[in-house]
Design goal:
Strand order of the largest sheet of chain A: 2-8-9-10-16-12-13
Oligomer: homodimer
Strand content of chain A: 15-25%
Shape of chain A: globular
Number of strands of chain A: 26
Largest interface: A-B, 59 and 59 residues
Helix content of chain A: 25-40%
Structural class of chain A: alpha+beta
């Protein structure tokens, strides 16, 4: 038997760190995104996404506008809005959601087809160009939204739309060839299976997965010419098997390559399919791929996908800090994938991987005020170069207002607002807490309230409330950068075994029982494998799960002159509630190398002692234009 | 009074290092290039350059083929052939040169116009698009060839063509607006002035220089639309004032920017104009720009122009080793510019700059066998990445056979074959030897034979032969990485003053007098300014003027694991005549960092002692596909 994640509608996040961010989602980000979709934010990139649905419904005249996948912005917003309604019931939002959903229902075609671009612009070309046209991608997001609305917000209207759409897709593709250009439909169908129990949806998802790579040239044979038309303008070559992840069947894949988000959405779907079916070759492929990413393709912040060209993975160990693509969506997708692997592979490292993404690369995608977002998440920025010099056009030193391609903001919103669904899993008589995030969880065995100081302080306290089943095992993952773990049961020190990375306690539980875990947040130096050319000889600093960085505003610009000796002290400064919404800065004993006057001098450069001030990476670029680096020179 | 360079037809290079390379030019490279131009090398990129002239002369039917500036390949070959005829008289080559020149004369139009692209394809558009069409660029090279043929090979046929062309250009542009897109005509006109004494040519060159930047928008206003046509396909934006170096008048320029070769050809012409006219503001601009390049924009190998996008300079200190553009032509042009500055600014550093280019970045452009060339000269190469990963498409790990845009090979050929013209200058009663290159120089005061062991050994021996004027001052530049200088006059140690970087000896000279200078080739560590982000914390090694590098073939791949401590010994190995055409390898005590198993580990990585083998950078990529790096990690 395998663990099953406890769905988010059984969990409420109550956490110093994350609750504030969920409130940011419900109160700022999700309403802001809705305004964007309705083109109500002056000065921001035009979205037109709602207007596109109105036109598809025959209720507005004009031209379709935006990316061919513009619909997905609405779907992802609806998914996030579903979570928002659960987190914070809001009749006004519910009314607006209802309006949006009925609009979508009116835009749906008689046969269940739903895509505004093709309905408005090219009705004759439905499902004709799966490589570039993102119809299945948009559908996948709509299905995710439909499932979330039903499961989390208890609203069934969108589910009816989703069922009609999913049935239409199954009908169209069950017996016809066809693989999605941008993977996502697989996740949507699996979510629909989860909510409706209709096995057709899961089977169709697995069919989409397994068809991929059977004929590497499928996209070459089945992508129609479209002179003068650009579907999103990405210029995706049908013959690029690596990019399209069609080089081999998915069960035979061994290395992450091509478009990072597509790869990771696919792996997320594969992991779930393996979980639902117990299919061993599917599971083995997921384990291999996760291993490959963790050993060869991930940045120290959790960012993945090192090149902006096609937003893709490149060759192993090619992880340039300053030209990093590291799309926010890819780190969100890594979280999805890691969460699925956590219950599939039972390896505690996936929990650390989730933390890596959540506290670093994914979270850095958002400004602290929740209104601006990074698409690209570099590990080093020089405002003189980033966004300006050729090769750095994609790297911005500050988060912009909005993007024409607005995939990342709603992706972060849906992740953060649904965070409760990533915390717990249940397996028979065993419940497992994977993340040190405070919550109230409605488990089959009991209600458990969890308090956590993470990532500020390393403590996690479980209090059992309504006990429904006296005897069960409570497991809590020990994060890899928490040390000196102490446990106490009802205030008395106990020694608990750590099995496979989890503290375990099996007992008869009484209401009011408390299990407290405390530890030290370790300040850790992270040394790259010397094969990572870009950062070999450098060092990064973490405190617990949080990767730190140096910014020019604290250290003066010219960060490449800073040196962090291997033996220098790194001091934790007091928690500062007024700095960057509350952080613990670090101060490291280091040096600043002094320019010798010549561009290349013969003398060992002088250096002077300096204290290097570090802040959490997720909070960078919140204090105006300045340099930033995660990696510091050793020496 | 200023120094004047002694023209190459008064000098014969007799030098262990360079004579062999000049023979490579006369015996291999120049004949090979001619075959390329005549499309006689099977498998190489088609040139069609000679055919284009035949078509322009009405003697062949067909389509123009190649770059819009394809003519310049012929002109640069002719210039190199002129030098070749001087270095090694060859009646067969002379015959072929004559054939080529008469073909060119037949392709020249009645009014003196000469450009095969426009004669064949667009006669109605002559001189209509100066930004993109390279007519003035091709003309400049033709004029350089014409001047060389007359001055060095004593052949006047091409000069007559050149005079007609130059007169035509003066007539067209004297009273008409117009600035060249790609600077070069200015150099050509100055060379014609040097050979003919016709001041109109110099004045026209200065006019082209001074018109530039008067109206930054000139190219915007004067570049015709040409839908469907691509003149070289470079897509140069007329509004890019920096790229086009039209942002300010040339006398007001303060920083190198835009296309590197264009910038440096312009500076070469400016320096000569300042020299010929004594114009102070022109001279000051050259000094400022040279200073800017040396302080902020040059690689440790002498490469310049850090981005392949438009082959351009970028922002200060942005000098990535692995994505370096460093066009061979730009280093050739740096040599031209530095040589001009040497006599204009009387600063011995320009001599070191010439050495930097000659022994490193420029020379690396050529395979040791003289038949293959780099266009791009990176300081770090990983064959897994270079030429493959996005952003590295331009960086090749091996020199290819030929290029569609073949500017670099003939540029190197003309530089190396005319090297004699860079050695000596004369200023009244003073003669100066700027480079430690063996030669026989026919100076106004005497014939002087110079023997040199450079760069293998630091000695330079002058023997005076036919004395025409007893009393004169002999100056010899002391290279900056030669130490422990000893001098002896006719075998007896003398102590000579070093003035402004030059050893000086004024005396009455007798035939047979010898002045010998010896010193030590210093092995030097070069530490970058910490503001050069890409190599801060790293070190490069030089022996005398020669920059060294590590290759995978000597050290195993994975060069980013190598560490060169600041205090480790670096040993000179014996000269190996069989290695890379004869080099002195270096062996440095260092370490190899060992992978810890994790991509980012918590422990200080282990390292093991290793000897790092280094070879001269100019000789890299001559032993098959492997990694290379100039920069090594300190630590």
């Amino acid at each position: 038997m395998r663990d099953r994640l406890l769905p988010m509608n059984r969990v409420r996040v109550l956490d110093e760190f994350w609750s504030a961010r969920q409130r940011l989602m419900t109160d700022v980000t999700i309403p802001y995104m809705e305004k964007i979709l309705r083109d109500e934010v002056p000065g921001a990139e035009k979205s037109h996404a709602v207007s596109n649905f109105r036109m598809a419904a025959g209720e507005e005249q004009g031209e379709f506008y935006g990316m061919v996948f513009q619909d997905s912005d609405v779907a992802k917003w609806l998914e996030a809005a579903a979570y928002s309604l659960y987190l914070k019931p809001d009749p006004a939002l519910e009314k607006r959601v209802d309006d949006m959903v009925t609009l979508i229902a009116r835009a749906q075609q008689e046969d269940g087809y739903l895509n505004t671009y093709f309905t408005v612009k090219e009705p004759e070309n439905r499902w004709a160009n799966l490589l570039e046209c993102h119809e299945l991608y948009c559908a996948g997001h709509l299905l995710e939204a439909a499932a979330a609305m039903a499961q989390v917000a208890g609203k069934k209207e969108l589910l009816r739309v989703g069922i009609r759409l999913a049935d239409h897709i199954v009908e169209c593709f069950r017996d016809r060839e066809g693989i999605p250009g941008h993977q996502e439909i697989e996740i949507g169908l699996e979510r629909m299976y989860e909510v409706t129990g209709n096995r057709e949806y899961l089977d169709m998802a697995i069919r989409f997965l397994d068809r991929r790579g059977q004929d590497p040239d499928w996209f070459m044979k089945n992508t129609p010419a479209h002179p003068g038309r650009h579907y999103g303008g990405y210029d995706i070559p049908p013959e690029d098997h690596e990019y399209n992840q069609t080089d081999v069947p998915v069960r035979e894949q061994t290395r992450a390559r091509g478009h990072a988000v597509r790869q990771l959405y696919m792996l997320t779907a594969m992991a779930r399919a393996a979980d639902e079916t117990g299919d061993e070759s599917m599971r083995a492929a997921c384990v291999r791929m996760a291993e490959h990413i963790r050993r060869k393709q991930i940045y120290v912040t959790g960012a993945v996908g090192s090149t902006g060209r096609h937003e893709a993975f490149t060759v192993d160990m090619d992880l340039p800090a300053d030209r990093c693509y590291g799309e926010t969506c890819a780190s969100v997708a890594m979280t999805f994938f890691a969460s699925r692997m956590l219950t599939l592979d039972d390896d505690p490292e996936y929990g650390d991987l989730m933390e890596l993404e959540l506290y670093n690369a994914a979270l850095a995608g958002m400004q602290l005020d929740g209104t601006r977002f990074f698409y690209v998440n570099p590990l080093s920025v020089d405002p003189e170069i980033s966004g300006k010099v050729p090769g750095y056009e994609h790297v911005l030193p500050l988060r912009p207002e909005w993007y024409a391609c607005a995939c990342c903001p709603p992706n972060l919103a849906r992740l953060i607002s649904s965070l409760g669904g990533y915390l717990w899993s249940v397996n028979g008589q065993r419940v497992s807490a994977h993340l040190w995030i405070g919550s109230e969880a409605d488990l089959p065995q009991a209600k458990i309230v969890t308090e956590s100081g993470y990532p500020r302080q390393a403590y996690l306290r479980f209090t059992v409330r309504e006990v429904r089943q006296k005897r069960f095992t409570l497991r809590a993952r020990v994060p890899k950068r928490v040390g000196n773990i102490q446990t106490s049961m009802n205030g008395e020190t106990v020694s608990l075994p750590v099995k496979n990375g989890y503290l375990e306690l099996e007992r008869d539980w009484e209401p009011g029982d408390t299990l407290e875990i405390t530890g030290d947040m370790l300040i850790t130096r992270l040394y790259p494998d010397p094969g990572v050319r870009d950062c070999a000889g450098k060092v990064a600093i973490a405190r617990g799960p949080v990767i730190y960085c140096a910014e020019g505003v604290d250290n003066g610009d010219g960060l490449s002159a800073l040196i962090l000796p291997d033996d220098g002290a790194i001091t934790e400064l007091p928690y500062d509630p007024n700095l960057l919404n509350g952080v613990i800065p670090l101060e490291a004993e280091g040096f600043r190398e002094k320019p010798g006057g010549e561009l290349y001098g013969n003398d060992i450069p002088d250096k002077e002692k300096t204290n290097i001030r570090l802040i959490p990476y997720y909070a960078w670029a919140n204090r105006g234009l300045n340099e930033m680096t995660v990696w510091l020179r050793r020496g």
